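My hope is that you will study the protein record below before we discuss the fold together.
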Amino acid sequence: MAQKALPTLRQLRYLVAVSDTRHFGRAAETCAVTQSTLSAGVQELETLLGVRLIERRSRRQVVFTPLGEDLAQRARALLADAEALVDTAQAGTRPLTGELHLGVIPTIGPYVLPSLIPTVRTAYPDLRLFLREETSASLLARLHAGRLDVALMALPYAIGDLPRLELVSEPVVLALPEGHPLSALPEVPLEALSDETLLMLEDGHCLREHAMEACRLTRSRQNEAFQATSLATLARMVAGGVGLTLIPALAVPEEARPGSGITVRPVADTASARTLALLWRPGSPRARDYALLGAAIERTVRAILESAAKRLAALGVPADPAGALLSDPDKDRS
């Protein structure tokens, strides 16, 4: 029986690039080739398969046929498998080498990555780390599509059957302007928040749900007039006296640093807000690499939380609440 002529990985990569960008010029830039080379590659693929994949209505309008959409999705899976083959070979020789695409949510990235990346680059100089910061839903979509290898997220969150490595449990604290009446308390009772303007992140940020659940707040307790896209924005609004907000312990050294105009207090009777975890696709050949990366992240996070405890002490939080604030990750896993 004659063997079928098969598409090349190059042709499939071109198809996926056009699918991702919906533009031949941008797809060519992504693949580091000329537009004529990419267009010829896609046409070769269509000729080989004997079907039309893309309708070229104009230079600016690229429309995939239904079959083209289906084959582009299959091409992503094939390219991911080909990359996994290379990863398997590399993982069998040296740990954390080659390319690794890491996604991280915005309420973790700014506080962990600046310390983590130099450490990882020093320990694993042959690793090429690519970073992507997006909300949890977007990271999961990219992970399932093979556009990310691993994601640093916060649980609880609906992750399905994805393998995970839980790292550290982290609580939230109340950020309030310096001199606010509640700052005179060693910890703030939940009922004291009922008369305060509580600023929250906008929809799509899982920290909002984590913080509200930890403090047993209802959606009616949030301020609908102002919802921020970042913790840094919330912190500046708090410093300006607009209201109060809940921030994770990781953010304390940065957002409540000396001169920020912000102080923090634990909220009484609250549970840990979230657990930081690494997630990846089932069957990934780089599970050992992810364990090494997770260990580096955990060491970094522990150091930041120790700084948070020191900052809390400097802000006048008594020793017992500060000690309880930063829970023992090993105990949390047991």
Summary: Residues 320-334 have pLDDT under 50 and may be disordered. Residues 154 and 276 are 5 Å apart (CA to CA).
